[in-house]
Write a structure and sequence with these properties.
Blueprint lengths: L1 H11 L5 H24 L9
Length: about 50
Amino acid sequence: MAALAKVLTRVSGTRVDVETLKTIIMFCGVGLTVSLLLASYGLDLSPGFF
């Protein structure tokens, strides 16, 4: 995780905190998990649903 933060700091030129990076990754992981669960249950969110 620290190596990823260092790479992002070098590439972007802004300081990236490891804890902030962990929080962002956790929220992205939760969002991806929920999306995959909804897709596996076949929830239809197409315009015909509304």
